[in-house]
Amino acid sequence: MKAGQPVSVSIGGRGASYTKSANTTLPFAIGAAFTGLVAIGTGVWWWRRPDEADEEIGEQPDAEMDFDQTINEIAHLDEAYEKGDIDEREYHESREALRKEAKALLEQKDREN
Hints:
The structure is a single chain. The protein has helices at about 15-20, 25-50, 50-60, 60-85, 90-110. It has about 110 residues and is mainly alpha-helical. The protein has 2 domains: about 20-50; about 50-110. The chain is rod-shaped, with a radius of gyration of 38 Å.
């Protein structure tokens, strides 16, 4: 070649950088999948762990737990009556029976103390 003559170059085929760029998504996908599994595992653990309230209920004596349940039943009965789900006669009979049961449980607790 002489000085001043034009030079033409043609490039064909696939370069080395082409194969590298195709493999960069695999580590990203693996990292994203791992992060997702960790997040799901943490959520399941958080949902299944015991609550402090559950531990407190387990420590209460049976008489106190029965008293609390009886009071809750009275509250549910009152709500049902206010909604009109039960008639007045049934409401008064059930409420009186639950009230007597709660009173007996309180007296039993006082005798034990």
